[in-house]
């Protein structure tokens, strides 16, 4: 029979989680604001890009359907 692997007790698990959360480096307020602005700008740029692509493909499909 295979031997069971040792299990971590709930108290030990919580200690390990606590030690790991101490290692987390949270972003500063300025980093958060900068990232949020960048995400907003990229969202606007990509939405305009996909609107343009969708319009072009929509026009092509309408033109193809008008041929039939």
TrEMBL record:
Subcellular location: Cell membrane; Membrane
Cell membrane is among the record's keywords: yes
Keywords carried by this UniProt record: Cell membrane, Membrane, Protein transport, Translocation, Transmembrane, Transmembrane helix, Transport
Gene3D superfamilies: Preprotein translocase secy subunit (1.20.5.1030)
GO biological process, one term: intracellular protein transmembrane transport
A single GO molecular function term of this UniProt record: protein transmembrane transporter activity
InterPro entries, A to Z: SecE_bac (IPR005807), SecE_sf (IPR038379), Translocase_SecE/Sec61-g (IPR001901)
Gene Ontology CC: plasma membrane
Entry coiled-coil feature ranges: none
Transmembrane spans: 36-65
Membrane topology: Single-pass membrane protein
Subunit description: Component of the Sec protein translocase complex. Heterotrimer consisting of SecY, SecE and SecG subunits. The heterotrimers can form oligomers, although 1 heterotrimer is thought to be able to translocate proteins. Interacts with the ribosome. Interacts with SecDF, and other proteins may be involved. Interacts with SecA.
PANTHER family registered for this protein in UniProt: PROTEIN TRANSLOCASE SUBUNIT SECE
Family affiliation: Belongs to the SecE/SEC61-gamma family.
Function: Essential subunit of the Sec protein translocation channel SecYEG. Clamps together the 2 halves of SecY. May contact the channel plug during translocation.
Protein name: Protein translocase subunit SecE
Organism: Pontixanthobacter luteolus
